[in-house]
Each structure stands twice: as structure tokens, then as C-alpha cells.
Amino acid sequence: MKHINHKIGLRNFIIAVFVLMVIMGYPYLSETMPRHQVIQIPMVVSLGLSLAASGRNLKITDQSSGIAILILVMASLTFWMLPYYVDMSAMDKVINALRLLHLFICGTLIVAVWRESIFEVKIAFVAMLTSMTAAVGLAMKKFNVLLCSSFTIPEQQETGTYLLYISAILFLVTIYFLFQGWIADNTDLADFR
Amino acid sequence: MKKIVIPILALGLCFGVFGFVTNGFQTFTVYSKTLHQAGPVPRAIPDLQLIDQDGNPFVFQDREKYVLLNFMYISCPNACHIVNNRISEIYQLVEASGMQNYVEMLTITFDTENDNLQAIKNYRNNFAPEADSWTFAIPIHNSKEKFNSKLKEFGLWVYQLPESRIINHSLYLFLISPDNRIVSVYDPVRLNNEQIIRDIQKHETYKP
User: Fold this and answer.
1) Considering only CA atoms, which of A18, A16, A79 is closest in space to residue A45?
2) What is the Rg, in whole angstroms, of the alpha carbon atoms belonging to chain B?
3) What's CA B80's distance to the chain center, in Å?
4) Residue A27: closest CA among chain B residues belongs to which residue?
5) Residue contact A64–B33, C-beta within 8 A
């Protein structure tokens, strides 16, 4: 009973942090581009991940539906990276709240799918996320043209640098999953022999 | 088969949504979206009353040549000056190819709070002291909102950063025909000077 109360407390805490972030975070978290893109997005997705991870019931067992959901999650993350929607969310707190809610749900869905996904799906998802982050980061760092009118070129380039760091971390995560899968495969093979 | 259909449908849905929100994968930024929303060219120009650097009022209808139009503000950190350098180069190409009787340049400031007649006259002298066919102008308007809506009719996005004098804006160049229609829009980031000149020459009424 005590164990369950801890979980409920953790979930309430995560939801409270999310609500506070949506209500109080704007405009501070949208004032500069690194805050808007590099802090808000990973933070809100992580909150969604944590909320889903705190309960074991949320899982999608059908592989086919799981892949479809991961495609939609990837598209959602890409959508909020489009310069037009970066601008709209930076200028309008309602759109920003919708963005945060959308990304929060994406975080919970990732965990729900992840629990029953096969190795190949996991590695493909992390690899796609890595390449998307690296591509956006590189474009922002190298473009000498302002892509989002709510910010400045130095902020855009700074954001690009941070996204490249994040993509490097995601790359290491990809490598980790790859080797984990490879070791598991070899263990199975050794057991068979 | 059924296992493949659901992910493919999800992928199709994503492409559909992205295609829709980007107007067929064409408008990814607020600048290109605003230009798209203004409509296809040729289209009529919004009516703007202007004052040139010498204090003479005029409207587009007074012009008899093609006008290559750009917008700027003097305290811009860099982009406006880079574009005006490009206009200066295009001006020289226009003169070199004998098109000066058919094409003129017009640069309008949208920072009507800080850019006055003396300021634009001094600024013009930095770029084009000898250029007879390059006019710098200030718009006359009653309210900033009305002026901004006119700019949107052009297809121009303008946004002043909060607590800052920086105005982020589209960098497009507009070619206006003598019958007062926008006939071409050029993105100076994507096109070089020669491509712009070649396009100006393509317009039917141009006869050197």
C-alpha cells in the first residue's frame, strides 16, 4: 500500500511540474531559442517518459500499432522543429501550451511502445531521432540566414551547437542499444551451442 | 499484410499532414508562409503613400518604369545592409546592360519610428550617391497595425523582438511592373544577381 502511494505521489509530482512549466514557464522558457528548443522539448518529453515509466500498466503489445505510434511520435517531434511552428509557439502561449501537451503525450507513448518493442524497432527509432536531431542542429549551426523570426542568428547557431551535442549523446545511446542487442544475440547463440 | 498496413497508413498520414501544413512542402518558415498567403504573382500592389529622401511625396502609380523594391531599416544589425549591397551591384548591372530607362530601384524603410528623412538621405549617400534611379523612401501611415497589414499584403513578414530594436523581417525583392502589379518576387539568399537580372529581362514589356 505504501509502495502504491509513492507511485501516486511521483505521478502527481510529474503532472504538477508539467502544469507549472506550461503555466509559469512561458515566456521565460521561450525567451531565447536554446531555452525554447533545447530545454523545453527534452524536459517535457522526459516528464512524459517518467510519468509512463512510473506505472507498469501502460503498454502497447501489438508490434504493428507500436511501429505506427513511433512513426507518429517521430513526425510530432519533427513538426515542432519546423521553423514556422517554432515561431508560432514562441509568439503565442496557447500554441506553446499545445506543443508542450503534445510532446508530453509523445513521451508517455514512447514508453508504452518501448516495453513490448523488438530490438530492431528500438534501434531504428533511436537512430532516426539521432539523425533528425543532427540534421536540424547542423542546419541551424551552418545557416547564415535567420530561420525563425522570434530569435536571432547567434541564438540559432547556439541552438544548433546544443542539438549537435544532444545528437552525439543519442548516437552513444544508439551504439549502446546496438551492442546490447548484439550481446543478447550472441548469448542466445552460445546457449544454443 | 495487415501488419504492414497500419505503419504505412501512419506514414501516409504524416506525409499528408506535413504536405498540408507546408503548402505542398514549400513553406517551412514564417517568411515563406506569409509570402504564400499573399497569393500568386502577378497581383496588384497594396496602395502605399511614400515620401522620398528629398521630401517629395509619391505613390507607386507615379512610376513609369519597372521598380525593383526592397524593404529595410537603418539600425538593422546586418541583413538589410547586405541586401542593399546586392541592390547596389544589381544597379550597376542594370546600367551596364542599358536597362536603366526601364528599371529603377526603390528602398522603403519600415522603421517609421526611428528612420527620418535626414537619416535615409544620409544612408542613401553611403550606398548610392550617384544613382539617380535609386530612391529611398518612408511610408506615410496612420497606424503601425495598418502599415503592417499592408506589408502582409506584399507578402512581407515583420516582427519586432520584445524589448529590442531588432526587427526580424523577410528579405524578398519585389519587381513591380509599370501597371502596378507585383510580377516577380526574388529571394536574394537563393538567387544571384545575374539570375535576378535575367528574370527582369524576361518580362514581355521590356524592350531595350
Assistant:
1) A18
2) 20
3) 11
4) B162
5) no
Dihedrals phi, psi of B103, to nearest 5 degrees = -130, 140
How far does the CA of residue B51 sit from the closest CA of chain A (Å)? 28
Contact B103, B208 (CB under 8 A): no
CB contact under 8 A, A79 and B21: yes
Q: Are B34 and B170 in contact (CB under 8 A)?
A: yes
pLDDT in tens, chain B (208 residues): 678 899 999 999 999 999 999 999 999 999 999 999 999 999 999 988 999 999 999 998 888 899 999 999 999 988 999 999 999 999 999 988 888 888 999 999 989 889 999 999 999 988 877 888 899 999 988 788 888 899 999 999 999 998 888 999 999 999 999 999 999 999 999 999 999 999 998 886 555 4
Closest by alpha carbon to B134, among B170, B169, B92?
B92
| CB of A87 closer than 8 Å to CB of A94 | no
As beta bridge partners, residue B57 has: B51
CA distance B132 to chain A (A): 31
| Yes or no, beta carbons of B6 and A67 under 8 Å apart | yes
Q: Is the pLDDT of residue A67 over 80?
A: yes
- Bridge partners (DSSP) listed for residue B72: B109
Point out the residue among B9, B14, B30 whose CB comes nearest to the CB of A149.
B30
Closest CA to A105 of A58, A153, A158, A159: A58
CA of B2: which chain A residue's CA is closest?
A: A64
Q: Which residues have a Cβ under 8 Å from the Cβ of B117 and sit 6 or more positions away?
A: B51, B53, B55, B138
CB contact under 8 A, B10 and A63: no
